[in-house]
Amino acid sequence: MQVTTLLSLAAVVTTAIAGVVDTHPWKAPTKNDRRGPCPMLNSLANHGFIARSGKDISIDQLVNAIEEAINISPNSTRPVVEFGATTSTTGNPNTFHLSDLNKHGVIEHDGSLSRNDLYFGDNHSFNSRIYDTVAKFFTKSTISIETAARARKARLAAAAAANPQFQYGEQEETVSLFETALYLATFGTGTQGNAPTKYVNILFREERLPYKEGYCKPTRVISNDDIVELADKVRAAA
Ligand code: HEM
């Protein structure tokens, strides 16, 4: 590729990133806004891809927002969003507040990477002490499938040792595997993993999409098969 072509490509990407930063600026939630245990959904609200209030989010709005922001296919997210909506306290089964997802035993589970277990009180706020124990595995500039699997395994072992009422069965295992697969799919390379460590840390620690650091929505749609393949690889690596 010629230098001029590369330069114009760089200009297009820079303009695209600047566009999203302008149209979806990150704003910290106010004290009346609702947030929940999912770093990605909280980030989408912080960028205004869904209501910044985190309240009365409809299933369709969320499915479309995920596609718009991070290009995960609607057919892979709709079933999860519909499952999440079973926690709804809005009075309308098609909408929910992000905080409704705090309900333990639906999607929310023990042994989270960045939240404490319900047994200790708060199962939904970011907990830097816990996330530090996970992030210490992320010693390279990108997170491989093996590293992600090791970090997850260690966190589950620590949570099981600390919580006398640790609850973890087949459903929790599946959900937890998919959460690791999702951050690798969102920021990594196809189904190879290798998510930039900086991006993953920003998602967890700041609940923001790392546009300023260079993240750009992938042009290729992330499919259900991609996520399942990554979850299988994480399971095998552990
Ligand atoms: C679309 C891309 C998504 C990504 C990249 C993503 C990412 C993640 C990650 C990495 C976690 C683990 C947090 C931790 O262990 O500390 C998580 C947790 C969670 N996510 Fe998402 N998520 C996505 C979509 C969704 C959707 C559609 C729902 C449901 C409406 C959802 C609901 C949850 C819930 C309830 C948890 C808490 C589980 C726990 O107890 O650890 N997420 N998500």
UniProtKB/TrEMBL annotation:
This protein's UniProt keywords: Heme, Iron, Metal-binding, Oxidoreductase, Peroxidase, Signal
UniProt-listed InterPro entries: Chloroperoxidase (IPR000028), Chloroperoxidase-like_sf (IPR036851)
GO molecular function, one term: metal ion binding
The organism's taxonomic lineage, starting at the top: Eukaryota, Fungi, Dikarya, Ascomycota, Pezizomycotina
Alphabetized Pfam families for the sequence: Peroxidase_2
Transmembrane segments: none
Designated name of the protein: Heme haloperoxidase family profile domain-containing protein
Residue ranges annotated for the Heme haloperoxidase family profile domain, each copy included: 22-229
Organism: Parascedosporium putredinis
Annotated SUPFAM superfamilies: Cloroperoxidase (SSF47571)
Protein family: Belongs to the chloroperoxidase family.
Cofactor section: heme b
Cleavable signal peptide: 1-18
Entry superkingdom: Eukaryota
PANTHER family the record matches: HEME HALOPEROXIDASE FAMILY PROFILE DOMAIN-CONTAINING PROTEIN-RELATED (PTHR33577:SF19), STERIGMATOCYSTIN BIOSYNTHESIS PEROXIDASE STCC-RELATED (PTHR33577)
Coiled-coil annotated spans: none
